[in-house]
Amino acid sequence: MSTIEYFETKDIISRIRTTVETAFYGNNVEKLLTPAEAYKKAKNSPGTIETGMPIYKPEEIGLPQDANILLFNDGAVKGRCAAARRIVGEPEVDLEDYAAKIREAVYDTRYRKMYHCQAYVGLDKDFMIKAHLLMPENHENIAYSWLLNFQYINELYNKMYKESQKLPNEGDIYIFSDPDWTHPDHPLGLTFFDPEHNVAALLGMRYFGEHKKGTLTLGWGTANRHNFACCHGGLKRYNLNDNSKYVVAVFGLSGSGKSTITHAKHGGKYDVTILHDDAFIINVDDGSSVALEPSYFDKTQDYPMGDEDNKYILTAQNTGATIDEDGNVVLVTEDIRNGNGRAVKSVLWSPNRVNKIDEKADAVFWLMKDPTLPPVLKLNGTSLASAMGATLATKRTSAERLAEGVDPNALVVEPYANPFRTYPLEQDYNKFKALFDTGIECYILNTGAFMGKDITPPVTLGVIESIIEGKAEFKQWENFSDIEIMEIDGYVPDFSDTDYKKQFTARMNDRIEYIKGRETERGGFDKLPADALEAIQKVVEEI
Question: Whose CB has fewer CB within 10 Å in the chain, the N or C terminal residue?
Fold first, then answer.
């Protein structure tokens, strides 16, 4: 599937889209289309640190042979800001007001050189969108990372794109960005989306992650309109010794372990094929999955200095630097300078990488950090399976920039671990329920702590291994008709403990209140079907 680049129909036009797209045609705009061109610009951009760490096999990703890892730091900003998001059609979003602010933002860039970058979102002819980013001079590092994160335009992907079926009434993605923008109404900046028309304005946003997720926000919105389930998570296929295959999808927010699980090598016990660890879509009709981006945007702290995996870094953000014994500038990958140090990693990080997996998933894992949940539970009812995804509970992470007064330690609900959804929640609920109706199994993995006891990565990976090998022993959990448990020493829940029973009940009631709250919040935009509430109420009744 492909999108419309040139004028064909007024259906793709809106006030915001026209305002943003028009900016791309100014006489102060220069096209910046290849990673090699962007590398040269970024290397010479003020404040860039060129390390002495060579990029691994640069020619395979369109870079000069002598290219090194580039580091750029953003000051106090080190994460995304959900509080800055505004979406056309939401209550209290005054289109006249925001349209005027965006027009003024475009006008204010007229004396600056602007770079027009292009890339593809979606890596298979089953789903491809052309995306355009307009970025001011002196922010070349964002443009460079964006071209590396998504698929830059080349002969191979141009051919694939031309062979794709055109999506009806879907225009290319257009994004206008000015990281230097300020406005008294928006002290945290503004990320404004018109998702129905594939356009966004990212204003006052230095952090590269805003540009990555802003682009994916529009890509996921398009996919949703064409019967794909949108996935903020990882997907991998285990190719087992008996020639069978087991496909696993894991869903979790930053810091939940989705990248660790997706890239886990399991000590070399399995032949593994990876689709992606952050962004993909599932075709609800046939169960196949398509990756949306070639590269990986990963936390650096998970890979200490000297770790072999660091050779796959292309760019780094909000990370320290020092000098090694040979006088080379090298990255301090541990989060010493600040939390949430990040890196764009090469597609070559995963040797068994593919862009599409034809087989449908065998299992979905909701990754949660709910202290009342044991390391693993199996959900048997399709309504409960989808409802627990819609009320996925976790803790906030260092990848987020919070508004004043927001408790960073509070347990929060983020439906399907995807804070980038711009369409009604019911649409995700129905799509995942439809996938479970086809026989996909559903599990909850608690990757945090159970009643104060840490659940370590070896415990989580051991659970996954037992499931894919068919050795996991689940039994009905207490009186719950739709929940089974695998009992693991040291993590067995005890409902005779009144404190535990009280806390578990409270967390389930939190989910009930969350679902009830969707009926009125944002004018009922995220109201869920009645069976979602009934499924979780049934759990409380059976405690």
Answer: C
